[in-house]
């Protein structure tokens, strides 16, 4: 976000778009085993999204590089096999509505990052897999939006255990 936004009106498209400073691509990882166990028990499952390395982000993409954020192709490959590839035109809700809904619950501050969703094709990865992702505008790759990351074992004392 480029500025503070609170209680944004869902019809204020200009206000929403003016509040955006720039864009980035992220890979929003989830430990499904941890998530499923917590859900079964009616517990919060935020820990399933909170492990080290679970949200690699691209470099900052200047707002001017994406003239229409509702018309961007996003893609993700695992070991060079494309798993996700679709357009932001398919988003269930437009960006202004997403920002309005969030800002009516919590204040968005300058520097905040808002994740808007993912294309179909979510799947599992294994240690050693290499994920690559990026975006295209008008068929042209936006270099600042590229990510390449190898899936790694967390290490350390935490061990997931079903209880």
Describe the structure in your own words.
The structure is a single chain. With 163 residues, the protein is of the alpha+beta class. The chain is built from 3 helices and 7 strands, in the order αβαβββαβββ. A hairpin with a 2-residue loop joins strand 3 and strand 4. Helix 1 packs across helix 3. The model has no long low-confidence stretch (mean pLDDT 92).
Helix content: 10-25%
- C-alpha-based Rg, rounded: 17 Å
Largest sheet: 5 strands, antiparallel
Using the alpha-carbon principal axes, give the shape: globular
- Strand count: 7
Tally the helices: what do you get? 3
- The H-and-E topology, N to C, reads as HEHEEEHEEE
Report the β-strand fraction as a percent range. Answer: 15-25%
N/C terminus separation: 40 Å
Q: What's the mean pLDDT score? A: 92
SS-derived structural category: alpha+beta
Low-pLDDT runs: none
Features:
globular, five-stranded antiparallel sheet, 7 strands, two-stranded antiparallel ribbon, 15% helix, 163 residues, alpha+beta, single chain
At a glance:
By secondary structure, the chain is of the alpha+beta class.
Please render the helix and strand layout as text.
Layout: H1 13-19, E1 22-23, H2 32-40, E2 61-62, E3 73-78, E4 81-87, H3 95-103, E5 130-137, E6 140-141, E7 147-150
Antiparallel strand pairs: 1-2, 3-4, 3-5, 5-6, 5-7
Helix pairs in contact: 1-3
